[in-house]
Amino acid sequence: MKCSACASDFTDGVHCSSCGNDYDFACANLTEAGYRKLGADRRAVWKCPHKCRTSSPAPPPTKSVVTARTVASAGPVTLEAIMAKLTTMETKLTALPQIQTDLRDLKETCEFYGAKIEGLTNNMSMLETRLSNLEPMKEDLAATKDHLDREMTQARYNNLEIKGVPLTKSENLFEIVEKIENFVGYNFPRSHINYISRVPVHGSNEKNIIVSFVNRYVKEEFLATARAKKTILTTDLGYHGESKRVFLNDHLTPKLKMLLTKTKQLAKEKNYLHVWVKFSKIHIRKSDTSRAQVINSLNDLNKLT
């Protein structure tokens, strides 16, 4: 059928219920989808916009039909115009190789950094796996360290540390201990001593005397008698020159020595009257009538009030 507006042939269009003419969708100012959505009732009463609607007639649709007259009205097409167009296109096309090169470089860069990122991700996964495997080892090391600390402490139960005795050539350590025995009033045979020697002090030129007893209770009684004496001076042991104090203490491990120092500091801050060591354990007491507490760790110090 032919369109009543433009005389073009068409196979599907719209029918005006007023004038009875047929139109293609373009001349009817409709799209095919829009026409289908009108429904059967509205399509049956549809009127064309050219003659039958009461509103002012719509301008005829503009068709994009290229005719010889249209081409002629645009002016003559010359060879020079075509060559100018081709030159412009050639100029634009010369940039294509560089664009292709840039795109290729960009692709290679992205692939390079993508591989780097993937490698870093794999390394992080490996590190996370190793760290997760280290956690049990960390716990085992902590348990081993605690066990060694207990072993070191037990190994020193029978030991006594004497500090402040001047170091002299050809000294006899057994005789020094006997002088201390005589001064404090507690004597025992040499057979009660397992070994005796001087050991260097960390960060000092001094060397303390370590006495290891065969019987721990002999050590404790000797130490308690010496502490009851309050003060022992080098001149009390027959040394000449400046008089300095001599100290007798349990032979503590470095860890317990540090804990004892912190305990004394805290006792001073919180007005605790007594801090002492017995059987290699640190004790603290607030007053003469209060209950003694054993300090085994820094956590115990944090609980003091």
UniProtKB/TrEMBL annotation:
It comes from the Eukaryota. Residues 253-305 form the FP protein C-terminal domain. Pfam families: Baculo_FP_2nd. Gene3D superfamilies: Zinc/RING finger domain, C3HC4 (zinc finger). This is FP protein C-terminal domain-containing protein. It comes from Plutella xylostella (Diamondback moth).
